TrEMBL record:
Alphabetic keyword roster: DNA-binding
UniProt KW DNA-binding keyword: yes
Segments of the chain annotated as binding DNA: 47-66
Source species: Flavobacterium caseinilyticum
Pfam families: TetR_N
GO MF annotation list: DNA binding
Domain HTH tetR-type residues, every copy: 24-84
Keyword DNA-binding set for record: yes
Protein name: TetR/AcrR family transcriptional regulator
Alphabetized Gene3D superfamilies for the sequence: Tetracycline Repressor, domain 2
Amino acid sequence: MNQILANLKIQVNEKIYVKNPETSPLGQKIIENSIILIDEIGFDNFTFKKLGEKIGSNESSIYRYFENKHKLLVYLSSWYWSWMEYKLLFATVNIIDPIEKLNKAITIVTEKVTDDANYEHINEAILNKIIIAEFTKIFQTKEIDQENKEGFFLIYKRVINSIVVMINEVNPDYPFAKSLVSTIVEGNLHQHFLKEHLKTITDCNESVTTTQFYLNLINNVLR
């Protein structure tokens, strides 16, 4: 699978950026270092000025790629979920048994993320930490409805709906497949956050993974 992924280009809605950062060394440098900087100081403290200082470039050069830092965060999220979509596809495409396929999909979207060497300028493990810490900031804005109309979240919704299809194959009579999957995908991010910062209100820890929790949940709900 890694060999196939290495030859794939992650697609992100072109309305999110001014210029595709994947098309130039500077653009890739912006993406690589924005991930590192947001992880270091948090999205609220992140600015294009600080990013420019980190990469040794003018702040104005970053605006040639992204209108603002929110659009940059949406781009990072879209890239992450597109990467996750490819992982889901190739991990489940040859699995015939519906329950085995669903369990594999849940494992993919909930397991601890490690860096993928196929994309040298993007550290997926650090990007995952950003998605966990900052994911609500992508949606909870006044522009959410307009951005949704423009397709900013299409990839994320495709990931959700691909697992919904798997649930329907396991139990076509279950009436809440979409709510269940969106709860698992977003709840997983929250459980990872709790495990890191608010350990006393989650059962997930070093020995009990979020994957174990959600596999237990989904198999009990759909039995």
